[in-house]
Amino acid sequence: MPSASDPETEFENELQMFGKDADVAIQCFYVWLTVHDAARKNEKVYHLLSRDRFWTLAVGSIQANSLIALGRIFDTDQRSHSVKHLLELAEQNISIFSKTALRKRKSKQSANAHEWIDDFMRGNVFVPKVSDFKRWQSFVKARRKVYESCYNQLRNKVYAHRDRTDIAGIVAKTNIRELGRLVSDMYQFHDVLLELLQDGRKPRLRPLRHSAGHRIERDTRKFLKSLIAKRAAAGE
User: Fold this and answer.
1) 2 falls in which pLDDT band (50, 70, 90)?
2) Exposure string (b/e) for 175-189, b if CB count within 10 Å is 16 or more?
3) Are 90 and 18 in contact, with CB atoms under 8 Å apart?
4) Which of 136, 16, 202 is nearest to 4 (CA)?
5) Domain ranges of the chain
6) Cα–Cα dist 228/115, whole Å
């Protein structure tokens, strides 16, 4: 893996890639979940999906993309852009999160930083220790264990290698609520790491009561409603 010009820049790049994968995972999961729920409850949506091959392929691809993104996040290969690599990089270069480094980053972001930076730095700025990163690695390890218990097999056998052997047995182990928590946890974990880097805010990991999933569900239902209305207007 090519190194960035300095550890802080490399961490920022790795964090950005983690954020993209976390966003893809949660977006695709909730779009897929919402479409299937709508098809179960709405006959018009059901007929749209069952009669139109494009939508059948699209929904299947969306589901696959969520698991593929999770696969990238939980990859343990040292050459990969994974959350494991991200945390190891941070632990090995913990000075990235020092008050001096934070002050420098905040000053670069604002032309009038000299007017407020001292007050900001006197505030509740959190400086993590190696033990904090060990704890966050345990948080990720627990979620990787959930992923590997079922979803990694599904990704590898169905989506990566098209191996249809014993797929029914693997799918039977899936838990939609569990998978929802998994994508939400990774989405939240990216956000708290970003806030730590940008503002020195202490990461607090808790269940998302008003998760991004709710917004995605709302937007997907709105899209489906609009699509059905357009088809009805066209006499389809």
Assistant:
1) very low
2) eeeebbbbbbbbbbb
3) no
4) 16
5) 7-233
6) 54
pTM of the model: 0.84
Instruction: Tokens 């550890």: give the residue.
Output: 7
Residue type at 155 in one-letter notation: R
Residue count (the chain): 236
pLDDT tens for 148-204 read 886 766 655 544 444 444 434 434 445 788 888 899 999 999 999 999 999 999 998
Measure the CA angle with vertex 175, ends 171 and 177; round to 5°.
Answer: 150
In 3D, which of 187, 217, 222 has the Cα closest to residue 205?
Answer: 187
3-state SS, one letter per residue, for the chain: CCCCCCHHHHHHHHHHHHHHHHHHHHHHHHHHHHHHHHHHHCHHHHHHHHHCHHHHHHHHHHHHHHHHHHHHHHCCCCCCCCHHHHHHHHHHCHHHHCHHHHHHHHHHHCCCHHHCHHHHHCCCCCCCCHHHHHHHHHHHHHHHHHHHHHHHHHHHHHHHCCCCCCHHHHHHCCCHHHHHHHHHHHHHHHHHHHHHHHHCCCCCCCCCCCCHHHHHHHHHHHHHHHHHHHHHHCCC
Position of tokens 């991200």? 86
Separation CA 154–CA 150 (nearest Å): 6
